Amino acid sequence: MEKLAVLGGDPIRVEKYPAWPIFDERDIEAVTRTVKSGRWGGGRSSVSQP
């Protein structure tokens, strides 16, 4: 059995993992709309709307 990478063996993955989380402007806009809507989990938020 080969040595685990943590114990000095060769790693299985040599390239870096991509940055996480992956999001773009559409995701930011969707979250912003949700927050501004005051609707959280199917009910009205107790936060007053401007």
Rg over C-alpha atoms, rounded to the nearest angstrom: 22 Å
Question: What spatial order of strands do you see in the largest sheet?
Answer: 1-2
Number of strands: 2
Number of helices: 1
Regarding quaternary structure, what we see is single chain
Ranges where pLDDT stays below 50 over 5 or more residues in a row are none
Instruction: Give the biggest beta sheet.
Output: 2 strands, antiparallel
Which helices and strands, and how do they pair?
Blueprint lengths: L24 H13 L1 E2 L2 E2 L6
Antiparallel strand pairs: 1-2
Overview of the molecule:
The protein is of the alpha+beta class and 50 residues long. It has one helix at 25-37; strands spanning 39-40, 43-44. Strand 1 and strand 2 form a beta hairpin.
Question: Nutshell version of this structure?
Answer:
With 50 residues, the protein is an alpha+beta fold. It has one helix at residues 25-37, and strands spanning 39-40, 43-44. It has a two-stranded antiparallel ribbon.
List keywords for this structure.
1 helix, 50 residues, elongated
